[in-house]
Amino acid sequence: MIVETDGYIELVQYLTGQLPLFAQNKGATSTADYTLRELLEEKLGESMMAVFEQNDLEQETRLDIVREADAIMYDLEEVLSSVLNNHPTAEQEEFVLEFVGLVKNLFDQKLNH
Fold first, then answer.
1. Is 93 inside a domain boundary?
2. For residue range 21-43, what is the model confidence (pLDDT) as tens digits?
3. Integer Cα distance of 16 and 14 in angstroms
4. How many domains is the chain built from?
5. CA 70: distance to chain centroid?
6. Whole-prediction pTM value?
C-alpha cells in the first residue's frame, strides 16, 4: 500500500536525517513517564484509527492498513532501536507527531486515489 512507495522511502530518509534529535547526549531532559516506543505505538495507533474513521473501508483494506502499520513500526524500531526505551523530550515528541502525521497523509492520499 504505502511502504513500497517513493513517499514512504523519502519519509524514512527524513527520519534518519533527524537522528541527531534522538542522540542521548542531547542534554535535554524529559518529563514524560512513557518511553519513545510507547509514544510511537500510541500515536501511530491513533493515526490508523483516524484513517479508519475517516474512510469507509472494506475489511480487507483495514487488514492491509494494520499490516502496513506493523511494517512502519518495525522500520521505526530498526532506525531508533538504541533510544526506544528512553523517555522522549518535548522536541522528540513534536517530531513523532509530525512523522506520524506524514504517515497518515500517505495513507489518505493512497485511499483517495
1. yes
2. 998 655 567 789 999 999 999 99
3. 6
4. 1
5. 10
6. 0.92
In angstroms, the Cα distances linking 5 to 22, 66, 71, 96, 108 are 26, 17, 13, 20, 14
106 assigned to some structural domain: yes
Residue 97 included in any domain: yes
Measure the CA–CA gap between 15 and 21, rounded to whole angstroms: 10
- At 54, list the grid cell: 475517516
- Residue numbers of the domain that contains 37: 33-111
Radius of gyration in angstroms for the set of CA atoms belonging to the chain, rounded to a whole number: 14
Contact between residue 99 and residue 15 where contact means Cβ atoms under 8 Å apart: yes
Mean local confidence (pLDDT), 59-86: 96
The angle formed by the CA atoms of residues 57, 63 and 65, to the nearest 5 degrees, is 75
Give the span between the Cα atoms of 28 and 73, in whole angstroms: 25
10 Å CB burial of residue 18 (0-12, 13-18, 19+) is: middle
Tell me the C-alpha distance between 9 and 7, whole Å: 5
Distances (CA, A) of 33 to 5, 23, 84, 89, 93: 35, 19, 13, 11, 13
